[in-house]
Automatic annotation (TrEMBL):
SMART domains membership: AlkA_N (SM01009), ENDO3c (SM00478)
Stored CDD domains: ENDO3c
A matching Pfam family: HhH-GPD
EC number(s) given by UniProt: 3.2.2.21
Reaction catalyzed: Hydrolysis of alkylated DNA, releasing 3-methyladenine, 3-methylguanine, 7-methylguanine and 7-methyladenine
Protein name stated in the entry: DNA-3-methyladenine glycosylase II
PANTHER family the UniProt entry points to: DNA-3-METHYLADENINE GLYCOSYLASE (PTHR43003), DNA-3-METHYLADENINE GLYCOSYLASE 2 (PTHR43003:SF13)
This protein's record includes keyword DNA damage: yes
Entry GO terms, CC: cytoplasm; protein-DNA complex
InterPro entries in alphabetical order: AlkA_N, Alkylbase_DNA_Glycosylase/TA, DNA_glycosylase, HhH-GPD_domain
Keyword vocabulary terms for this entry: DNA damage, DNA repair
Sequence ranges assigned to domain DNA-3-methyladenine glycosylase AlkA N-terminal in this UniProt record: 7-119
Domain HhH-GPD positions: 129-291
Length: 294
């Protein structure tokens, strides 16, 4: 097998921990393998499995992938999005450094970026499966979906199924994998919309100017897709940092920790509002804050 290698420069304050933790959610490591300074991830690209390996070295990331599976002009932008390198976090941190409650959090967590899924479809599938259940339950569903699709790289890593593979599974197999009737139907609906060209997710991700309202409108037109699913998909699939994730239980718990009082969805939405256009990045800091204090 012929492999390609490229190197990406990393910011001085790049935080590897949160990125690796995001990809280590499934302890069975079917589609992602995480070591101290390495991420290996299976990707289904151009009709074939690809093994992507990212080694984190001082000040740089060494990227390795199967040469025949993914051209260089595609892999580096993909990795940059996955690592959050396109996110202008410096401006956000400078603007809110003096905030009495969030400022100390930003100081402790300076450099935090939002890790992205391998593809927008993977992020959307996770958002659908994660609706109104715990992270552990969502991880289990994701694992069973990956096993049902059975797309494996010769090196052993599984690949998260994309739209065509989900459609090939069909409703019965998705239900057998543990998805509820509603979630299975929603996942099939978005997969069909991708195949029909109504949801050109990869093209949107590669566009120089992200059309958030176009994506939002297209997703909300699908039964079973609501604001939380849209905002989470925009965050983890496209790196859009202004979705208000006030419907996320962990976000509300983080706000409660800062305010030292109970917070409902309406209060969380109002508290997050002044941080636009960075509300989803604030949510990421709240998630990280709780993970560090767990």
């Amino acid at each position: 097998m012929n492999d390609c290698f490229e190197t990406l420069a990393l910011p001085v304050n790049f935080r590897v921990h949160e990125l690796l933790a995001f990809h280590a959610r499934d302890r069975e490591a079917l589609a992602e393998q995480v070591a101290a300074d390495t991420l290996r991830k299976g990707l289904w690209r151009q009709g074939r499995p690809v093994c992507l390996q990212i080694d984190f070295l001082p000040g740089r990331a060494r990227v390795r992938w199967d040469a025949e599976g993914l051209p260089a002009q595609d892999v580096l932008p993909l990795v940059q999005r996955m690592l959050g390198l396109t996110q202008d976090i410096g401006r956000f941190e400078a603007q809110w450094a003096a905030h009495p409650l969030l400022g100390p959090v930003l100081q402790r967590q300076s450099g935090l970026r939002v890790p992205l899924a391998g593809t927008p479809f993977e992020a959307l599938a996770w958002a659908i499966m994660g609706q109104q259940i715990s992270v552990a339950a969502a991880v289990s569903l994701r694992r069973r979906l990956i096993l049902a699709a059975d797309l494996r790289h010769p090196g052993g890593l599984y690949c998260h199924p994309q739209a065509d593979a989900v459609l090939a599974l069909g409703l019965e197999s998705l239900r057998a994998a543990g998805l509820s009737q509603g979630k299975a139907q929603s996942l099939l609906a978005v997969a069909e919309a991708v195949r029909a060209g109504r949801l050109p997710l990869d093209a949107w991700a590669a566009a120089p100017q992200l059309s958030v309202e176009q994506i939002r409108t297209a997703l909300l037109a699908i039964k079973g897709i609501g604001p939380w699913t849209v905002n989470y998909t925009l965050l983890r699939g496209f790196g859009w940092l202004d979705g208000s994730l006030h419907g996320d239980v962990a976000v509300r718990r983080g706000i409660e920790r800062l305010l030292q009082e109970d917070v409902d969805m309406a209060r969380a939405e109002a508290w997050l509002a002044p941080f636009a256009p960075w509300r989803a990045l604030v949510a990421a800091h709240l998630w990280a804050m709780q993970a560090l204090n767990a």
